[in-house]
Specification:
209 residues; alpha/beta; Spore Coat Polysaccharide Biosynthesis Protein SpsA, Chain A; 7-stranded mixed beta sheet; 8 helices; 7 strands; 38% helix
């Protein structure tokens, strides 16, 4: 995506935020954040770092989520979830059913946040929620995050081109939030990461460099 890619935008955004500190969303709390996480999902990453990167990103997303509201992790691998977090067993059959399992245990406004967003921050979650019914689209047209003021709107539409399917299904706003647009699927994604990754992912990259 050249200079307009989310990684470049995020670097510029962080510079602007540093110049204007104290800008905080007026949204006080999102009741629930659902994070689907499936063990051994990152098959396109190099094997030496695959498992560790997935766990590090999950830990960073969970840590950011805890500063916003209640957190539910839907997973088939309870051992990697940080202590004290509510866990729901993944029913299998893909991302859609996993999210549905999380939404069944949630009330009110819910954010669905993918576990592979290494730059996720509490401020980004507040911003997403402020858009109401909204989604964050990845560069490849998939969906990285959803804001669901009414969780009954959700339909299991994930997969290639899912952002367009969500927009066709309901009046989702496309929220341009660089912190939530950067995801990790391949080694090339790792090589293009901005400096603003979470502390667990930062430590892992420092060790593996």
């Amino acid at each position: 995506m050249g200079d307009l890619g989310p990684r470049h935008v995020l670097e510029r955004r962080l510079t602007a935020q540093a110049a204007t500190p104290g800008k905080v969303s007026t949204l006080q709390r999102v009741p629930t954040i659902v994070i689907p996480y499936r063990g051994n999902a990152k098959q396109r990453l190099s094997s030496p770092i695959r498992a560790a990167a997935a766990v590090a990103m999950l830990g960073d997303v969970v840590a950011a989520s805890l500063e916003v509201g209640r957190v539910l992790v839907v997973t088939n691998d309870r051992a990697v979830v940080p202590p004290g977090i509510e866990v729901i067993d993944d029913p299998g059959d893909g991302l859609g059913p996993a999210v549905q399992a999380g939404l069944a245990e949630a009330e009110g406004h819910v954010l669905v946040i993918n576990a592979d967003l290494p730059c996720a921050t509490p401020a980004a979650f507040y911003e997403l929620a402020s858009h109401g019914l909204a989604l964050v689209e990845a560069a490849d047209g998939t969906t990285n995050a959803l804001s669901l003021p009414d969780p009954s709107v959700f339909a299991p539409l994930y997969g290639g081109g899912s952002a367009q399917r969500f927009r066709a299904h309901a009046p989702f706003v496309t929220a341009r939030i660089p912190e939530l647009e950067v995801d990790i699927d391949t080694d090339a994604d790792l090589e293009r990461l901005p400096s603003s990754v979470g502390p667990r992912m930062r430590a892992l990259l420092a060790v593996s460099a």
